[in-house]
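seq:
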Amino acid sequence: ALEARIGKNGVTDQKREGDSKTPLGSFALRQLYYRPDRLFKPQTPLPTIALRPDDLWCDDPDHPLYNRPVSAPFTASHEKMWREDRCYDLCIVLDYNLVQPHPQKGSAIFFHLTTDDHRPGPTEGCVAISLNDMLMILPTLHLGTVMTISTAD
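struct:
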């Protein structure tokens, strides 16, 4: 079993933009982004995209590109994909609220890296694991692999 981090406010089946909760459910893995200045292209069957410094993700519920990748310059609210904290050095997009996104239902729900393998903290609503664990499982992940997020029984 791998240790994972979730949203700092737990999990929910009523996800809202900015609630810092990880959505409950089953979500297909869509594609992997990686930082080519920090890592070699990982070995994985997932579609893989090299990040660029101008890569962003729109998190503005009122924008037509809500919960979509966008590029700088971009004036609406967004998240930077090219981060200093290494969280998105490897970042897999989860199929959450992607097809016809519903405003306020949450955006940028990713499976990414913890910031610090010694004392990793919670996420803003994503799922995060260590770099070593991610590198170990990447070769087994493919388009359509499903991550299920549930409460413990």
